[in-house]
Predict the structure.
Amino acid sequence: MRRIAYTLPLAVGLAASSAMAADLTAKAIEAPPPAPSPWDVAITAGLMTDYYFRGVTQSAHKPSAEAGFETRYDFASDWQAYAGLSGESIDFPNRAAAEIDFYGGIRPTFDKLALDFGAWYYYYPAGQCFNTSALCSGFGGGPAIAATLPNGNVVKANESFYEVYAEATYTVNENLSVGLQEWYSPSVLNSGAAGWYSVGNMTLTAPTAWFADGFGAYVSGDGGYWKLGTTDAFYAVPGFPAGIPYTSYWNWDTGLGFTWKSFTLDLRYYGSNLSKADCNAFTSDHTATGVATSAINPAPLPGSNWCGAAYIAKLSFETNLGGGK
């Protein structure tokens, strides 16, 4: 009986030790959670009542749709590379089929300061040339369709161009951010005129405590100046036989937005200080009417309202397939 009494506690102890060892072994060989992928893809889509770009409509004051995606790679938590493709519906004087944007760059971050450096190519396929055969062949990128548009304007078949850019955004706190951007192109809209665009912006985001879960709101504004150069001879007018000096101009926008999960409704006012005459010279607006005279838009050329004030509503959607930034 004494022998049995001593053996039973020993057996129980051995069993407990074996169970503990098995548990430790299982925990030791359990695989760690996989590291998050450095890859991410953002998908966007939107509908807007008008498509404005730097104070100028790109859709002849008609509704426009857009869609795109952006592939991102994080070298580190504060160093990202990206490349994207997007498209917008437009209504251009040269009858281009759409705007297709190709872009890419890097986004380094230093605490509250986020930087962005890259290049952007605006591609407008299937355009047609309206001018003389000699100018269309020499500068316009395609054969002449007619001597001018019905309202007297001329436009190149190829208006595609590229820009390089640098952006800086500083997050003051969770509710306020401010930013600066610089964009440069050696030939805006393939006109031969260089363009340097400088813009500042500010966004004020409402505290999350003000809304139910998933909802948010913000107000924001932008103010920019586009310094433009002189075109090639395709756009020459009397007094400027080698090309017209585009009028540099200011543009601005301000508005508010409401967010819910992946959706944003943005309501915004846009404006610029371009006159109807200088706006027509810059855009070759095929819908322009009347007569509006300036040095670079002599009579009987029309005046354009494409650069005037506009109130625009936009509903957009954005999601990240990888859940990254």
